Amino acid sequence: MRKTILLLLVALPLMGAAAHKYYFSVTQADYDAKDHALKMVTRVFYDDLQKVFQERYDKSIKVDASYDQKKLDGYIERYFNQKFIVKINGKERRLNYIGHKDEMDYVVCFIEVTDVQNPKSISIENTLLMDLFQDQKNVVHLNTGTTKKSFLLTRDNDKAVLNFSE
Q: What distance in Å separates the CA atoms of residue 140 and residue 30, rounded to the nearest whole number?
């Protein structure tokens, strides 16, 4: 009897965890002093990205290899320009969407900000998927070569700011 109760106490929370889905993305942002660019790689679960695209743009969008990749890149670029804001030294900068590749469970998006001269601060506002998923969390890792910092962004705190001096 004790073994059964102990087994239930251990198993029930684990079964509940299996039904729970976590919503998150991960961005690695590296400042390349040689190229004067902030190079970013963002990983987003493909099913979450597909759901937000179907809600916002078109119910027929598929975030997979079967869908027109040029069209998909257009949606990704459009969405990032709305939900991913980079400021260098307090000034908003234009994102250059390079492209994406598919991996097992997620889409890897490549973005950069060029002509970054003498950065004193880098700010990234990342609200990807937050309009659709209440519990969305976006992790941002910022690396300047001399300074590394990680941020956990939520609906209530959606900006990562790294101040540094050269």
A: 11
What's the CA gap between 14 and 33, in Å, rounded? 46
Angle between helical axes of 69-83 and 46-56 (0-180°, round to 10):
80
Backbone angles phi, psi at 43, to 5 degrees: -110, 125
pLDDT digit string (tens) for 37-80? 999 999 999 999 999 999 999 999 999 889 999 999 999 999 99
Confidence of residue 145 (pLDDT cuts 50, 70, 90): confident
What is d(CA 145, CA 113) in angstroms, rounded to the nearest whole number? 16
- What letters, b where the CB count within 10 A reaches 16 and e where it falls short, cover 147-157? eeeebebeeee
